[in-house]
Every structure is written in C-alpha cells, then in structure tokens.
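Course assignment 3, question 2. Fill in each field.
Student: A.L.
Task: Predict the tertiary structure for the chain below.
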Amino acid sequence: IDAPGSPERQTGGWLTVPPGDYKLRARWSDAHAMWAHEGEWTGELETGELDFTVAGQPGAAPEKKTASTTAPRVWKALEVRPDWSLQLERKIVTLDELKTAAGGHGDWVVVIDAGGNVRHETVAAVADVLHAAGVPLGYKDGRVGDGKLRVANLQAVYKFDAKHTFSICRPGGRPHFFTVGWPAKDGRPARHLRIYPAESEATRGRWAVAWEPGTDVLWWVDDTHVGRMTLTDPMKVVVDEMERAGGVSSEAALPEEVRLEFGRLGLDIGPASAPWKGRVPGQGTHEVLVAQPFSLEDNQPTPRASDSWTGTWQAVADQVVEARGTPGAAVEKLISWGEEKDGLRTGLLMPGQVEVGGTLPARMVVRNVSSETKSLKLTLTKYVTELCARNEAGKRIDTETPWLTGTNAISPLTLQAGEQVEVDAWPAQFGGPERKPGEGLVCRVKSGAGKVKVKFGLQNVPLPDTGEVTVDVVWR
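Answer field:
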C-alpha cells in the first residue's frame, strides 16, 4: 500500500499452516522516528481481524492437531544495550518481561544483537533466560558482547580476523556446511576449506561454531561430535573430532568458555571424562587437510573453455550429483540447456530435490555454440533475471524475484567460438514462510509439495532463457 505511482513492488504474504480456522490482520508502519526525514509521518496502522478457514483437500480426512505439529518459526530481534536495557522488536522490555514472553512462545527464534561495548555477563544472562525457556537463539555477527569468543550458528559471512574469513551456509536441502578461508599472501593464492557438520533428521540445523579472534583454533559442535580445527597453515589444517555423547576427553583441551556458550545454544557437552573417539571408523581421530585454492574468477564473468568450470560451479554440481544419486556424472550432463538464439545457449544448474520451505543454489552458464566470435553488451547481474515456474500440468506458479531500483551496468563481453561464461543466479526457495530481513535474498516459488519446473528468464540481460529444471518439492 503506497503512494500512487510508487515503483516499489508489492508482494503478498506466504504462510504454511494446517487446515483450520484462523484470524488475519494486517499491520502497516512507516519510517521509525530514529531515521525518519524531517516532517515525515511516523506511526503504525492496524486493520481489524478477518476470520477465514483453510480447508483440507477434498475427500481427505481432517488433520488431527497434535503436540507434534511443527509451528512456523517466528524470528525476533533482541538488542542488548550497553546500559543493560533490552529492546525486543524495538520495544523496551525488562529481563523478567523477556522471561515471561519467551516462556509463552515456543515458536520464537531470537537473534541477539550485542556489540563489543556490551558486557558479556549481560548477554550471558539474557541467553540463559532464553535457553531456560526453550527458545532457540543466535548472535548477530557472532558477537557475544565484549566476551573473547565469537559464536556463530546463523547463516552469514563473519569477520573471523585479519588472517581468515569465515561463513556458514544452511541451504534448504542438505548438507549444511561452514567454510574457513585464507586470503592470498606472498604470491600464494587464496584458499578455503569446507567442513560438513554431522546432522540427523531429528536435530537438523543444530550445530554451531566458536572461535577466539587472534587465535588459530576453531571449535564446532554438531549432532554427534565436537570438532577442533587448527588453522595455522592452510596447507596443513589439523582437524580433530571426538564423540560428544557422555562428554569430551580432557585431551581435547576444550575451553570451559566454549562449553558454556555451546550449552546456551542447547548444544550441551558433558564433562571431560569420555575417551577420545573418531567419527569415521578406520580413520582415527586426527586428520591433516589441505585447503583448496579459491579463484577470483569464481565471482567474475570471465570467458572460459567449454569444459572449464569454476570452483563455485563445481560445488553446485556436487549437490546436483548427490540429489540425483549419479556419482561420477559428467558436469555437462547435469545442465538444463535452453533453446539456441543467435548462436548462444544458456544453461541452468540446480539440484532437483528440496523440502517445502527449503532453498536450492543455482548457477547459469552462457555458451557461444556458433562458429563465430560474439561481441556482446550484457547486464550480467542477477537483479535483472526473473525466475519462472510451472507445475507438471503447465500451469504457471507465482514467483517473487528480488530487485533493485536504479541503473545496472552494461558490460562488454567477447566470447570466441566454443567459449562460455558463468553467471551468478539467485538461490530459489520453494514454499514456506517469507524470509526475514537479514536472512539473505532469494527467489521465492509459491509452491507446495509436488513437481515444479523452473527456469530463469534473461530477456533483460539480454540472453536466451535457460532450460528448465524439474524440482521435486517434498514434505520433510
């Protein structure tokens, strides 16, 4: 609801709820007083409630609402200030009020914003209250006030320190992973190492990482194990893992601060009493891994030979192979190619299975299939692409694609015969609730469970559209 002629795109809500009776109301607010322009109206309007019913499929038995029914998560922002005050969704609350509210909202996920000027004791007290109420929590930027540790369990890129980069990725489909990177130095290329925490269906997503800036040790805890990485040399990354059940061996030298922080996230680790056990039978408890080179070409539209792929492309290809169950498949066979136009074809790489509400990565490639050199002027940004979707019967499925106002750069590009260039693509979320600010931008396909055919429309690049990928969207 905006001024006439406003260029802002209006989008609808997307809820996943079981059949039943509900009430709906809408709230609209304008700029917050802290950053409103002079004379700009600030405030909030709310409609009355509308009663509506979500009906089940014809002929289906009524769904029984049981205690095991999973309610959609509600993300809440909680700011902890240096003066000990708390702001929950911009409303001041006391610690007792937070405790009362959290106790009645088992569907909450609270993201704590506590900068380095906030005492760690204050943040710990807040986290303890949420943990005691059974409310999952995480820390913005991994900061736990002025505590010496950083604790990360949310999907984001984190500032590790001057010597390393660090990121967490929680795609809608398996597997989750985190990545540690080393910048280029003294002629040595930038390198990265990826770790896949152990997960199960019952505890999926329950893992976290902790480190102390300025040191070369990183800890993580997952469904079954506690791990330690020593990052001194990217060519010799020491990785030790031990079983979490019953405690961790004193040989691991797990700092008590790390144990406590993981516990506040609901990832309890017992006392230092258990024997040292490795995750993989026959491999022992100690590995020395080599970080892989990372090329800047992974994020730049650089022409390559038709059989040459970046590390980013190969990473998505590995997920496609896993989803299809076709180990050893050639990369070329994994691509869905669109129709040729003026000697160019565009292909789409995307895994073919995801849970409802899950997100899949995507990557596109443009290939010169003619015998001539192509001199192009393209807008190689995913902000001008559009995700298109349809069901098996060919009926269009509504989608939402992120966009930005303004003018996009037009880049000259020359492709020799047989050359190709990789193009970044939006991740695609299939059904589920709309993402909250800060959770990352994605294309949204408003689908439920079933077969969905998707492709990217590239007329604004301009390039021919990609081919279609059939995605099997399943209930968890």
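Instructor remarks: The chain has a mean pLDDT of 79. DSSP finds four helices and 36 strands in the chain.
Grade: pending
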